[in-house]
Amino acid sequence: MIMARILITSAIPYINGIKHLGNLVGSQLPADLFARYMRARGHEVMFICATDEHGTPAELAAAKAGKPVDEFCAEMHAVQKDIADGFRLSFDHFGRSSSPRNHRLTQHFAGALAENGFIEEVSEKQVFSIADNRFLPDRYIEGTCPNCGYDKARGDQCENCTKQLDPTDLINPRSAISGSTELEVRETKHLYLKQRSLRADLEAWIDSKTDWPVLTTSIAKKWLNDGDGLQDRGITRDLHWGVPVKKGDQPWPGMEGKVFYVWFDAPIEYIAATAEWADAHGKADADWERWWRTDKGAEDVRYVQFMGKDNVPFHTLSFPATIMGSREPWKLVDYIKSFNYLNYDGGQFSTSQGRGVFMDQALSILPADYWRWWLLSHAPENSDSEFTWENFQTSVNKDLADVLGNLVSRVTKFCRSKFGETVPAGGEFGPREAALIAELQGRLDAYSACMEAMEVRKAAIELRGIWVAGNEYLQAAAPWTVVKTDPEQAAAMIRLALNLIRVYAVISQPFIPDAAASMMAGMGTEDWSWPEDIASALQVLPVGHEFTVPEVLFRKITDEERAEWQQKFSGVRA
RNA sequence: GGCGAGGUAGCUCAGCUGGUUAGAGCACACGACUCAUAAUCGUGGGGUCGGGGGUUCGAGUCCCCCCCUCGCCA
């Protein structure tokens, strides 16, 4: 196997609150699965995530919490970091889009784009709230709809009659933030990224990605071709919290007091976070640049992004336009794995309504592995999928407790009672064992192929099949019967089965890292080497090797618990 | 209204460029086993593949129309 270098990024979660399970399964979790698998196969991996911290919602959330926005973001970053650790998300670095690295890099990209003629200054009129001392984004202006008379219409659209509005259309407009009616229209200047000038480049690039999921390319092409086609995009805002507008390290005349739009600086944070990683580990710039600069070693890097479908336009068009327009040799993404939505019990997960299970709540009721297994084995790859408590309970109980957990239990306890807690000697492998080895080799190849291709659900099915094969073997070999007449032969069977536990720990680790660690600890080894060859992998634990019977790996979810949680999470988040 | 994704066994889903009796897991029934977390293993019942046309020797798989769900946009 040739060692490869793989750069993996997960869409970066917004700072203003804790994410729900739908967000988790749409980007961070599958990205982690892929990162863990690639590391397990011996590849060099750089797995990057961060918090997305700028913009109006962050400012408002901070105000609501009664804290300065920078302090609020620092606290929420720590909270999200803890939860990510709780889910065992194995980021090499979990950065912050508000970092000095991202400030400098964002300003650098803007400067380069301007130099190459891809930035246009546009003067436009926006609503300014005197009481709030700030410009108001359209959706933060409320008033009476001129069309239907609804008195809580927003400046971008009336939610009652769905008519598209301009803020100036509203009757008796007021600030949605303070309620103040002291509003005035002011002239303000903004920078636009001339995406239309890069349209041909973008289209050619996307057309060259024939191996991308249809979900990814269909969304990209829609934005490229729909209506009037790809539009130029404003990349600055009249806000206080954000990356100050600069042309590289120089001031940008006329843009004083403005910041870059959150969607401009957020993807750049992928790069900046890698630089933050280098800083945090006392490494040189060359150490992160070899992942991102094709002129500095990134030519052989494979870059894979994970995200929900709502993020696809920014990753297929806006961010690539930023990179292409810089005319600098930054690494473009090689593969975009995108996901549909996970629904919750007949409806949508909703952050604003607190509907569904949020990441902190999930960890408070069950260990990470339960969630990881269910979410990954039901990842919304081909269409939206649905979380129900009944499905969660049966899947987890059956797959984890019955098929895998019980297998570990029956093997180790049987050995302990008949041979003691060491790998027993005697006997030889026969045709039945040879058949098992052949089957496992074939199934493992299929599993690996799915993991390489990021076919998450299929990989889970293959892995489960491998677990089942172990039970099938035991059932057919029946060492509990054989031991009565031929203890040596039974010993050979159990020797194989104990080694099987180690193999299962290694290959299951990307899905269920904690259980894998328990299995490995029980087997008394730290040999995580991937079972390239099953026959030899099943001899890693030698005769006489000591092990212990692990605690129950997965306890079952009871009907009472299921009913309780179903009730608890049906309504509004406390 | 436009666009995109879907509508396959009770449930959750597989089914690439059309090809013999449409698959898996769960649930259900029966049987085997008793080492194990009342776990495991085997066998079986169950679907006119949203509806209607069409192309074809042959369509869940291609074309047209319609219905329904979800999302995005206007």
TrEMBL record:
UniProt subcellular location: Cytoplasm
Location of the Methionyl-tRNA synthetase anticodon-binding domain: 423-573
Pfam families per UniProt: Anticodon_3, tRNA-synt_1g
Residue window of motif 'HIGH' region: 13-23
Catalysed reactions, semicolon-separated: tRNA(Met) + L-methionine + ATP = L-methionyl-tRNA(Met) + AMP + diphosphate
SUPFAM superfamilies: Anticodon-binding domain of a subclass of class I aminoacyl-tRNA synthetases, Methionyl-tRNA synthetase (MetRS), Zn-domain, Nucleotidylyl transferase
Keywords, sorted A to Z: Aminoacyl-tRNA synthetase, ATP-binding, Cytoplasm, Ligase, Metal-binding, Nucleotide-binding, Protein biosynthesis, Zinc
UniProt keyword Zinc present: yes
GO cellular component annotations of the record: aminoacyl-tRNA synthetase multienzyme complex; cytosol
GO process annotations (BP): methionyl-tRNA aminoacylation
Residues where Zn(2+) binds: 145, 148, 158, 161
Textual note on the cofactor: Binds 1 zinc ion per subunit.
Physiological role: Is required not only for elongation of protein synthesis but also for the initiation of all mRNA translation through initiator tRNA(fMet) aminoacylation.
Record PANTHER family: METHIONINE--TRNA LIGASE, METHIONINE--TRNA LIGASE, CYTOPLASMIC
Entry similarity comment: Belongs to the class-I aminoacyl-tRNA synthetase family. MetG type 1 subfamily.
Subunit structure: Monomer.
Name of this protein: Methionine--tRNA ligase
Gene: metG
